[in-house]
Amino acid sequence: MSKSLLSLAITAAVLSGCSLIPDYQQPQAPVAAQYPQGPAYSPAEAANQAAAEQGWRQFFHDPALQQLIQTALVNNRDLRVAALNIDAYAAQYQIQRADLFPAISATGSGSRQRTPARMSQTGEAAISSQYSATLGISAYELDLFGRVRSLSEQALQTYFSSEEARRSTQISLVASVANAYLTWQADKELLKLTQDTLAAYEESYRLTSRSNEVGVASALDLSQARTSVENARVQLARYTRQVAQDENSLTLLLGTSIPANLPSAQPLSADLLSELPAGLPSELLQRRPDILAAEHNLKAANASIGAARAAFFPSISLTANAGTLSPDMGGLFKGGSGTWSFAPQINIPIFKAGSLRASLDYSKIQKDINVAQYEKSIQTAFQEVSDGLAARQTYNQQLQAQRDFVNANQDYYRLAERRYRIGVDSNLTFLDAQRSLFSAQQALITDRLAQLTSEVNLYKALGGGWNEQGSQKAEVSKEAPPLKLF
Question: Which of 448, 352, 469 has the alpha carbon at shortest distance from 401?
Fold first, then answer.
């Protein structure tokens, strides 16, 4: 019997290396080899460090923003769920992988039974005892055609995908915190600008009202001055609301309240971000976690085809146990009390009403779906980076033009105010200069915010935000979880 078991174990070990998983071929990237070129794009430059390897502390210069990102990485609930999902998929992989090994269990039992006299063959009451101790293997499937191994590979690739999903969640979180913080600062600057402008409008209205009382300014002048004041009050209420809502949004991202010891914020006009190298589109395949996650899902779908193919072939399962059996406890381990059983079972699919073929077709269709999703993730990444590169060049030009426009309006305002004070021009010209300057200053803050958020989104699109320091490598572990015995 032992020789038969040994031969069967050797045969199973040899055949278990068989796999029906198709050879994996990485799909071709459905994008151009270079990013778009044209008037909206700056000339491509070589970079010594990929954007994905540039740590967020290196990219974001504002100490207040750095502290907020650190707080979010510790407390954000979405990131916590993503980390727990990794543990959950690791457990599922462990469950699936355990089927590759026989489940061995030991049992011990004992019983005593009294048989009444009228039921006994001897006509007398009898008491019988039975004790046993066994070590056994139950329903262990010999993985002759790699079905179990294919399912294990599928679970492993799903686990790797969850790791990339966690990395993608962190990158998105870093960008979201940065954008929320920049929006908060922009709205606070707009609020301060509105407060200052309202004070200037109120002072102008006061002077115009006094002039109207002495007959110098007309009722129309007074009405125009009042409309400017009321419009500024509307803007004040608007930006007061937006600043409060910005704080609430930031608090949600942080997962806790905004730290009380937050350093003073730098103005939007300061050098808040580092320059980003774009690199080549091919680098996105190694840097973008959503692309890597999509590829792992594709590999998982590829492995499921192997399991579906293996279902067409016979499966063999083994149940065996060995132990001792004795009518009394003392004789349980004495010679001659040994017992064993061996029950192999073979299952040969003969008629399944097309379910096996349908399962294989379904697996192939799922693979095609994952191929399309993988290609779409590459195209999306290419589009996001291209948009960011176009925004970089055009925003630089737009901001410079807007600064010049603000300077021109400031000159217009000073001249209009001087001419109004000395009585050369009417109050309408002065009010128009005030409104134009206020509008130009608002637009400058809004454009600067749009430029900064565009750079943050480009950093995210290039896979940046995973590292804290630039010296680290933007990689995740590609090792299977350790095998647990119990």
Answer: 448
